[in-house]
């Protein structure tokens, strides 16, 4: 891990021009330091012990080892390193596989520079980052494997908390959840805080991903 003043970043992309562009884009940010570059997932994994990155900006489609395979290995071997997928592809399968193999987020390469910097900083702190429009695609995509085992705290959820989780899994925001359940928006926020604590997840996106695998989608019966 880097020191408390800077976030150490490893750039992984098979296009040298993209890596140079990202390096130039991030250079003015005092809180960020690019410590290395790699042209594929295998090369990135080999660099981690030497470069000691905090966050990896990972492309998806690369020769030798793609970003999804590399993300899975990194999450297993180096769980303290955050992988933020940065790609031109918003394919549902890529997004879902990357996130479920441990990616801290999934952004498109046309993400505005300021938003990218904020996403890196948020990923470093443990928050899941998704490009606008990707949350519904991720939550509505069918699982590629069997549902995971319920985490500790799942059985402690109240019926109301499960209802809220079901709605989270559809991509609903707090206002929409409040309207659907005829409760105050502040009450929804309080319930979500309790849900995150019980399930030991950092944010609503992670909770929604979990709910989409473990809970049925609410019936749309009006």
General description of the model:
It is a single chain. The protein is of the alpha/beta class. It folds into 2 domains: 134 residues, Response regulator (Rossmann fold, 3-Layer(aba) Sandwich), CATH 3.40.50.2300; 61 residues, Winged helix-like DNA-binding domain superfamily/Winged helix DNA-binding domain (Arc Repressor Mutant, subunit A). Helix content is 47%, strand content 13%. It is built from 10 helices and 6 strands; from the N terminus they run βαβαβαβαβαβααααα. The protein has a 6-stranded parallel beta sheet with strand order 2-1-3-4-5-6, with helices on both faces. α5 links the parallel β5 and β6. α6 runs parallel beside α10, α7 packs across α9 and α7 packs across α10. The longest helix has 15 residues. The termini are far apart. The mean pLDDT is 83.
């Amino acid at each position: 891990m880097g020191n408390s003043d800077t976030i150490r970043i490893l750039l992984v992309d098979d296009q040298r021009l993209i890596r140079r562009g990202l390096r130039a884009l991030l250079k003015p940010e005092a809180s960020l330091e690019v410590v290395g570059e790699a042209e594929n997932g295998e090369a990135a994994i080999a660099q981690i012990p030497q470069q000691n990155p905090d966050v990896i900006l990972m492309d998806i489609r690369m020769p030798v080892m793609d970003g999804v395979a590399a993300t899975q290995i990194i999450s297993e071997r180096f769980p303290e390193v955050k992988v933020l997928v940065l790609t031109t592809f918003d394919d549902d399968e890529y997004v879902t596989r990357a996130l479920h193999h441990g990616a801290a987020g999934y952004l498109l390469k046309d993400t505005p520079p300021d938003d990218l910097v904020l996403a890196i900083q948020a990923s470093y702190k443990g928050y899941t980052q998704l490009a606008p429009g990707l949350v519904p695609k991720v939550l509505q995509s069918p699982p590629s494997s069997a549902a995971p085992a319920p985490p500790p705290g799942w059985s402690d959820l109240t019926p109301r908390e499960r209802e809220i989780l079901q709605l989270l899994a559809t991509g609903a925001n707090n206002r929409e959840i409040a309207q659907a359940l005829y409760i105050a928006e502040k009450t929804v926020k309080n319930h979500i805080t309790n849900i995150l604590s019980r399930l030991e997840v950092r944010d609503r996106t992670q909770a929604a991903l979990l709910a989409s695998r473990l809970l049925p989608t609410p019936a749309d019966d009006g």
